[in-house]
Amino acid sequence: MGLTEEVVSFVVKTRYRDIPAEVIRLAQGFILDGLGVTLAGSTEKGSRILQGFIRQIGGREEATIVGTGLMAPCPLAALANGASGHAMDYDDTQLSTSKEAVYGLLTHPTVPVLSAVLAVGERERISGQEFLLAYILGVEVECRIADAINPRHYQSGFHSTATIGGLGAVMAIGKILGLKEEPLARALGIVASMASGLRENFGTMTKPLHAGLAAENGVAAALLAEKGFSSARNILEAKRGFFNAMAGGYDEKKISGRLGRPYFMQEPGISIKPYPSGSLSHPAQDLILDMVKTHDLQAEDIESIEVGTNSNVPNALIYPMPKTALEGKFSIPFCMAIGVLERKAGSAQFTDRKVRDSKVVELMKRVKLYVDQELEALGYDQVRSRIRIKLKDGKTIEGKADVAKGHPLKPMNWAEIGEKFRDCASLVLSHKNAEDAIELVANLDRQRSMLPLMRALSGRNSAALKLKQIKVKKPKSKRWSGIPKK
Q1: What are the φ and ψ backbone dihedral angles of 267, each rounded to 5 degrees?
Q2: Which domains does the chain have, with CATH numbers?
Q3: Sign of the dihedral defined by the CA atoms of residues 409, 101, 346, 301, in that order
């Protein structure tokens, strides 16, 4: 069996009842988080431009553009929602299975798959269980492909969320459409030739567009394959196929025989972002906030801040003196400065006004990012960070962090995910719609239809949210605690 055949066979043959209860529960948490960041991201300037562009194009009103009253054809709704979901750089991050792979440089797995599933699922009026199954399978394939690909793919300039997100999205949509092995292999062949996205666009509106295009490509490729559109059926492993062309190879043992054994959500896991910025900054952000509060530090007390990391961090966080909020998301000096000055790092801190504030600019000049050889030698699977703060009175304060809040080793519980969702949703939804959405996701496996959830996410009147639910026993996950029971 070739690798492409193995992947599509896994998707076609896996049923909802085959999914472990813990994976179902984990998926509910990742979905709620993904919906929240999509709602918040729908207010960003780039998202508004894209929404206006889609409104001009017009077409059949098949699917909701989240956070708006707009409806659009499925591929365009997936495009808009995918771009919104990544607009604030607040979406989840795939971990790696080895020290050689680089944490945070694989994919942001949820948004491309979720955006595609929302669009086609609404049109096809799928149940909550169908929603969960498609999402879980899409994320599993996406994460395994990203984990297996030669790291050269990312390091030479490809944005993995853009290139590999579409491969996960097409598997999810193929499952919803009921595609068998042969058309699903063709769908994968189609979307692999649509894959693109370059890291030089980090810090611009085009970076979140990558996630939107991945979702749109997944939808379009699946719909084309359903109609009989042809493509190569061995696209992953072929000499001129995805892995070889995009990266010069892959590690077969990281994907072959590994799909669902265990699910990637379980091991090594997916990390939920505590801050709306590049994930490689997060351990340092956790650390600076803790140090500032513990020692009651003020900006005027600080002579310099040195941040030590491995060599992949400066390769991704590329703005020493950012000029916009988008650039600030990829800037260690800004993340450190705003942490000291405001003792927070939420969506209210990542704005153009904050980045250009004279106090922030002055403090950024005192921040140095360097490669710490001790941390470099430990590998790249974690974003280990060290901070040394030199005070004007001659004292030095030091700290070290391996992971940030939201990492599986330092996880958020359901209540904390809910609070992040409420904060994000408050930008566009009423309190009632936000609470309705949380309850519907918590009970997604019992929903006969996802339409009530889409109504809540659109901000439209949600008086008709109460539909009959399937009664299913809901075992708890080891990770999310406190999901409400019916």
Answers
A1: -150, 120
A2: 3-271 (1.10.4100.10), 279-401 (3.30.1330.120)
A3: positive
Nearest by Cα to 334 from 24, 297, 345, 450: 345
* Beta strand 367-371 pairing with 302-309: parallel
Q: How far is CA 147 from CA 142, 197, 277, in A?
A: 9, 18, 22
Among residues 150, 141, 77, 152, the alpha carbon closest in space to that of 109 is found at 141
Q: How many residues does the chain have?
A: 486
| More reliable by pLDDT, 5 or 279 | 5
Residue 96's nearest CA partner among 276, 279, 226, 219 is: 279
* pLDDT tens digits, one per residue of 93-104: 998 887 666 655
Nearest in space to 483 (alpha carbons), one of 406, 382, 434, 413: 413
Q: How far is CA 127 from CA 30, 120, 124, 439, 447, in A?
A: 18, 12, 9, 16, 6
Could you count the other beta carbons within 10 Å of the beta carbon of residue 445?
A: 24
Q: How far does CA 251 lie from the centroid of its chain?
A: 23
Burial readout 399-416 (b: 16 or more C-beta within 10 A, e: otherwise): bebbbbbbbbeebbebeb
Token pair in block for residue 458: 């659109």
pLDDT digits (tens, 9 = 90+) for 301-341: 999 999 999 998 898 899 999 999 989 999 999 999 999 99
Residues 330 and 118: their CA atoms lie apart, in Å, by 29
